[in-house]
């Protein structure tokens, strides 16, 4: 399964970036948390279902299809670099962007570890 084609993983990543739990997505979609988990494990998803998920996540279906971790990291990096020398025009950040990147990385890493454990348990 190619990461570039695995739509379920992309949904999972975007949901995590939004700080949304599977349960919350399930409620918004009117399905069970287990159904969301199954969707996030699916390599392909029907277009109508993808459109509903995209709407709940606040993006369009093309954003999900074209999502990549590298793109997000590049956007964050360029935003941080662009703003590094800029003057603060009354904009006070209520969070540390670096902490958010580290937090995102840790969540993604935990998610990958969880998937490895599930795969190990399924082999046994």
Any key phrases for this structure?
single chain; 124 residues; 434 Repressor (Amino-terminal Domain); Lambda_DNA-bd_dom_sf; Cro/C1-type_HTH; Helix-turn-helix domain-containing protein
Instruction: Tell me the β content.
Output: under 5%
Overall number of structural domains: 2
Helix residue percentage = 55-70%
Q: Could you please say which CATH topology of the largest domain applies here?
A: 434 Repressor (Amino-terminal Domain)
Mean pLDDT: 81
Domain HTH cro/C1-type: 11-64
Pfam families: HTH_3
Organism: Pedobacter alpinus
Protein name: Helix-turn-helix domain-containing protein
Describe the 3D structure.
- The protein is mostly helical and 124 residues long.
- The protein has two domains: 7-65, 434 Repressor (Amino-terminal Domain) (Orthogonal Bundle), CATH 1.10.260; 69-123, no CATH class.
- Helices cover 69% and strands 0% of the residues.
- The chain has seven helices and no strands.
- It has helices at residues 7-17, 22-29, 33-40, 47-57, 61-65, 69-84, 97-123.
- It starts with 6 loop residues before the first helix and ends with a helix.
- The mean pLDDT is 81.
- Residues 11-64 form the HTH cro/C1-type domain.
- It comes from Pedobacter alpinus.
- This is Helix-turn-helix domain-containing protein.
- It holds the Pfam family HTH_3.
- InterPro entries: Cro/C1-type_HTH (IPR001387), Lambda_DNA-bd_dom_sf (IPR010982).
């Amino acid at each position: 399964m190619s990461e570039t084609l695995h739509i379920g993983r992309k949904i999972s990543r975007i949901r995590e970036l939004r700080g949304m739990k599977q349960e919350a997505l399930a409620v918004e979609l009117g399905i069970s948390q287990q159904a969301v988990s199954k969707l996030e494990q699916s390599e392909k998803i029907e277009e109508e279902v993808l459109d509903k998920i995209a709407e709940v996540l606040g993006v369009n279906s093309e954003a999900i299809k074209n999502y990549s971790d590298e793109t997000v990291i590049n956007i964050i990096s360029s935003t941080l670099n662009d703003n590094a020398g800029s003057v603060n025009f009354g904009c006070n950040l209520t969070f540390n962007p670096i902490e958010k990147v580290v937090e995102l990385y840790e969540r993604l890493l935990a998610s990958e570890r969880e998937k490895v454990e599930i795969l190990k348990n399924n082999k046994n």
